[in-house]
Design brief:
The chain is mainly alpha-helical. It has helices at residues 3-20, 25-36, 43-50, 54-67, 89-116, 124-151, 157-166, and strands at residues 41-42, 70-73, 82-85. It contains seven helices and three strands. A hairpin with an 8-residue loop joins strand 2 (70-73) and strand 3 (82-85).
Length: 167
């Protein structure tokens, strides 16, 4: 397999996986393209490579920057905007985990807390509902807290040392 074919296959596959991870295909493809590029890429190059419109490229680049995994890079003498992706895979995993928690887990926790705190009557169905939703809330809260602890390791020198020793 030649380089261009391998790169295209990677970008297409990453895009397909992105939709399974809760982001749109184009956003994942742009991220993949930037992640494997050796230098910053202009929006025009992204549009050409992926055959997408300026609006689509702009909207998805903005979303990737909001996630903190793509950055603008300015080149002296250039009027175009250039973009680069986070290359540190540990940092990338931390940022994605934090963003997904904020967008998915925290809202789910809010709903689970709300629905599990209703006053159950003597009815078995209602008691079962409250009991099960409370268990779900507790489980998701523990998972989210564990995720928070794992993603905080970048900020804690002792945890960083422990992770280095495990490698």
């Amino acid at each position: 397999m030649e380089f261009k074919e391998a790169k295209t296959k990677f970008v297409q596959t990453w895009g397909a996986l992105g939709s399974q991870w809760g982001i749109n295909k184009t956003m994942a493809q742009i991220h993949a393209l930037l992640m494997v590029s050796g230098e910053a890429i202009s929006m025009e190059e992204i549009m050409e490579e992926l055959q997408i419109s300026r609006g689509n490229a702009s909207m998805n680049l903005r979303a990737l920057m909001d996630w903190g995994i793509v950055y603008k890079e300015f080149k002296t003498g250039e009027r175009k905007e250039f973009f680069v992706a986070e290359k540190d895979l540990d940092e990338l995993a931390v940022k994605i985990s934090r963003e997904r928690s904020k967008r998915e887990i925290k809202p789910a926790l809010k709903i689970l807390k709300e629905v599990s705190s209703i006053k159950a009557k003597e009815n078995n169905e209602e008691k079962q509902f409250v009991e099960q939703t409370q268990k779900l809330y507790d489980f998701v809260l523990k998972a989210d807290n564990a995720l928070d602890k794992i993603t905080e390791y970048k900020d804690n020198w002792l945890t960083q040392l422990a992770f280095k020793l495990m490698k």
